[in-house]
Design goal:
Blueprint (H helix, E strand, L loop, with lengths): L1 H12 L1 E6 L8 E5 L6 H10 L6 E5 L6 H9 L3 E3 L6 H13 L3 E5 L21 H9 L3 E7 L1 H4 L4 H14 L2 E6 L9 H22 L9
Helix pairs in contact: 1-2, 4-5, 5-8
Amino acid sequence: MFSRIAAAVVPALGHLTTSAEVTTLPAPAVLVANHTSLADPGIVLAALRSMDIEPVVLATAGLWRVPVLRYLLDRDGHVPVHRRTARAADSLDAAVAALGAGRHVLIYGEGRLPRRRDAAEAAPESFRSGPARLSLASGAPIVPIGQAGARRVASGSRAKQLAGFLTAPARRPRLHVHVGAPLRPPAGVEAASAATHQAVVSAWRVAAGHLREPAAFTH
């Protein structure tokens, strides 16, 4: 449902292009993307649907407080993440079960949005351990995903984000999603997290490079 909605809505918000280092993705797989804007989950879902992939998404549990939205999220099998609670581990268990059923699972490494107010691109911030733990627990490979341009749709204060969404159809910002090659992370959560972060940064550089974002060419 949400992948179909994203595929219908995102083209109205901007001009989305995609690239990939492989023609098909293994299933199951842990898809790890950089998180920069409230708009980027839809952008990533739209890009993945163009590859015939509709993943299970790990998303903040707050979304489940909206009755109709909760029904749709549960119907599609998405997983609520209860951060900083005793139920935090439940999300990984549910995600491992989805992987065991042969699904793709999409998770955001940073676990939060950047605090910056500008709309420019920047390399992904440090990752939480969730993606690495999920891959190591399930044995599924990690597929790094880099997205760029979402902050041109929405970023900054709430008022600025709302204005961004409302004006995006007229502005038509360029958006790009790059899917990197699958990798088997090394043993150990710390090493696996570092390898995953490096792979997502590389995928983000490709995506941002397509948009000629200056940050993509800095080291």
